[in-house]
Amino acid sequence: MGGSRLEQTNALFRKNLMIQRRACKTNCCLVLFPLLLCSVVGGLQIAIRRSSSTEPPTRLDCACSNVTIDENAMGGLSLGCPDECPLPRAPRWPPLLQIPPSQYRAVGDGLFPFTDLPDASCRATGSCPATFLVTGGNQSFVTSVMDNMFFPDHSASVNLTDVATLSEFVLATDDGTFKQSFLQNKCAPNQTLSYPEQFGNEIANRGNSLCASAYQTLEIDVQCTEALMRWRDNLKTINDELYRGYYQGNNQNKTDEIAAAYDFLSSDQGNFNLIISYNSSNSDDVYYAVEFLIPILNEGGSVDIPNFAQVPRLANMASNAYLQLRQNGFKMSFDFVKDMPRVARHLGQFDISPLVGQLPFVWTMELLFPVILTNLVYERQKKLRIMMKMHGLGDLPYWAISYCYFLLLSLLYVMSFMLFGSVLGLSLFRQNSYGVQFIFYFAYMNLQISFAFLMATYFSSVRTAAVTGYLYIFVSGLLADVLFRHYVEDVYLSRRWITLMELVPAFSLYRVVYEFSQSILAGRYMASSGIQCVDLSDPTNGLAGVLTIMILEWFLFLLSAFYLDRFGSLTNGIRRLALLVRSWIVGKHFQAAQQQNTQLQEFRASIEVERADVIKEREMVEQILQESSSGYSVICDNLKKVYRGQDGNADKIAVRGISLCMSHGQCLGVLGPNGAGKTTLINMLTGFSKPTSGTAYIEGMDILLDMDRIYTGIGVCPQDDLLWENLTGREHLMFYGRLKKLKGTALAEAIEESLRSVRLFAGGVADKLVRKYSGGMKRRLSVAISLIGNPKVVYMDEPSSGLDPASRKDLWNAVKSAKQERAIILTSKLHHFISILKGAIFRLRDCFKNPNGFVQIRTEPKDLDALKDRYGGSCVLTVTAPVGEEEEIERLVRSISPAANRVYCLSGTQKFEIPKEGMKISEVFRAMEDAKSRLSILAWGLTDTTLEDVFVRVAKDSDSSTVT
């Protein structure tokens, strides 16, 4: 058995290799498809890198060799540092208030209906003040607070020795020049403020080396900027003024921006309520520039001053002014800000792979599913799988070779995906461990293949399977991105629901790609370099659970697919198991005899009148089944097939209970019109369909129990040509010859002999692809396939259909030669088998009309007259006379035989059927000669019943028979 499976595996492998060699362009395009996605994503990433600045965003706490400092202004500070090092102790930074640039500050230029704004001429000198709008329910109280907003009012330059002493000064920066200044109610000429500032010299953490941090202290000089506090009657007026200045500036290349606005509501000496309005919009340049001014990080690696510095500073200014007005000695000091301690991280270059999302990568990985599914369904739709099985191919070799081929294709696809992604610089592939990626992708590809095997059992059309496959990957990917992702990110959702959703293969894949992508994003802000092997034990990412689910589903899908492929449904498997158990307990022969007796009683009760030859054949089968060794190749024991009616229709009885037996050297012809049940009988004997009742024994093996063993010794020519379009005729015979254990010289000789016997050898026809064959050539190739390898039993379902007379004659000569060593069962329509009987010198051992209405003929050395006597007991008299004498001619024939029946009358020619019983040929000749003297008979003839007449009568009787 092991050697047989090895030979079958070798035959199937060689056949698939020939097919895939011819489809190499399609396979190459499929394997290289990931290059398309990686090229698009990688090319977009390269384009963005080149169009953006070559120097990455920098930080003051990095130690780099290319530090340049412009001591005149903070905006001149330029640092270049590709890596960010650990920051165990951050320096202190003064809190800064963001104000509009000088050229964009609010002035009296007619945009606002107020006269308390500064003259527009200040824009030329860059001395425009920063305007703050104020309102409230108590104007006198608010005015007092406004007077204390900026303090102290220094008239000369100030030199401080520590950052902490800056709390009394309101430091500000604008979003245009990024220069620092300090706000005063009134500025003296050239008034400056000097204070020391610490800058970090950070040593990058490369590899496993330690990092240290050191800091430089620089003296910073900033200029004074005048601040104006302007009263407005209500908050609506302030809102209009804020919006008008900002909107006009964005749309007319001109602006009158207000620095900020306060609404003190109902504040008074005992109550302090406050609403602050500020500008929260910043350009990207503002974020980058402010990074080295205030190192407070947000998620994107930039400083959002409005959220982290603007609001606290504005609130602190109003709070201190209120406390000073109360004169209670309290002060709310805003001394400095500091960065949080952090570990080392690599800022790196711009990477787009985590930003495009998981969906494109998931769709690309799923693309093989419809490809695998359609390949499997193609062999199912074309019945190539069952054709190979009927010629001896076992389930294990088929599954092994098919699975290995799809696995190899999947591995090439995955390796291509990872290789192109890494070469094109996508961090999703580069930073995550290649070993971890391969483990998960390998597990998913196996799961995808087993899932395709399972789904293939539910499809019979390639087109339906293809549409369903592509629809599945599209919808499942969208659901994973829209629905499943939110569930994964929802920390309040039970992880059991996540695990349940991951049972869908597409969701498992999405979770894997999602965790890989998230690890890259996290690596930009923490000391992380993607998913590594040690991270599989981390329960937060859930990768260990996903891997477990994929492996378990892999085996579950394979087992389910194998079960459904073998039994078709759960109930069929249970029924087959019960039949096996019962056969082991009671024994097959006893069971067969018991079933036969029951079925015989049912059959006899259902048929009112049964021919004696049918009963004789059934009794012969009963007797053979009682013998321990019958020596017969084929025994059919009351085979019956009923198709259950649907939608209220009656049951359709296709085969009514066939009993027959055949030995080696016999050729059984099953003849009848369409619908007589010929093909259904062949399908039951070859395992295409299961009988409703009864059974059959092929070489002593039961078709209900031992079909796998039966397949190794039979040959089949099905009604339809089940061939591969991309193989030649010679390659077909080579494949099926190997399945029949032919090797080397014996295989080559058998192929040559088969090709010659069906006239496919000359002219290089054998080496042409089957898709270039005509219908007749395909039919002859199917016959050759059924005969190769010396099978003990051969089934041919209408083998001569579509053949010209010469090819039909050669075909039946081949069948005649082949039947000497094997039993052959063939079916044919009536006119086809007439040519068999005429062309080949076949004799009859027996012939009878079975319960289905078709004729069974066995070839034995007897005369064809037995068939004619049984179904054609009449002669045909044809008389031609002038028109008008038809009635005279009919009276003449009636005088010869009163039982004569006129078949037709056309233009003076009449045809009569005269029963042979009681008829003498001499009397017919005498009567016709006497009639010539008184009637104008032009011609007449008497012939015996032809074979064609016999089979036409059989067909008519079959159509008019009543079925019970």
Automatic annotation (TrEMBL):
Which intervals hold domain ABC transporter?
634-870
Q: How does it sit in the membrane?
A: Multi-pass membrane protein
Which keywords are on file for this protein? Answer: ATP-binding, Membrane, Nucleotide-binding, Transmembrane, Transmembrane helix
The organism named in the record is: Digitaria exilis
A molecular function (GO) term? lipid transporter activity
Transmembrane parts of this sequence: 359-378, 398-426, 438-458, 470-488, 543-564
Q: Which PANTHER family does the record cross-reference, listed alphabetically? A: ABC TRANSPORTER DOMAIN-CONTAINING PROTEIN (PTHR19229:SF127), ATP-BINDING CASSETTE TRANSPORTER SUBFAMILY A ABCA (PTHR19229)
Lineage: superkingdom = Eukaryota
Per its UniProt record, what InterPro entries does this chain match?
Answer: AAA+_ATPase, ABC2_TM, ABC_transporter-like_ATP-bd, ABC_transporter-like_CS, ABCA, P-loop_NTPase
**Coiled coil: which residue ranges?**
none
Q: Which lineage ranks, top first, belong to the organism behind this chain?
A: Eukaryota, Viridiplantae, Streptophyta, Embryophyta, Tracheophyta
Q: Which family does it belong to?
A: Belongs to the ABC transporter superfamily. ABCA family. CPR flippase (TC 3.A.1.211) subfamily.
GO cellular component terms, alphabetically, are:
membrane
Q: Could you identify this protein by its name?
A: ABC transporter domain-containing protein
Q: Where in the cell is it found?
A: Membrane
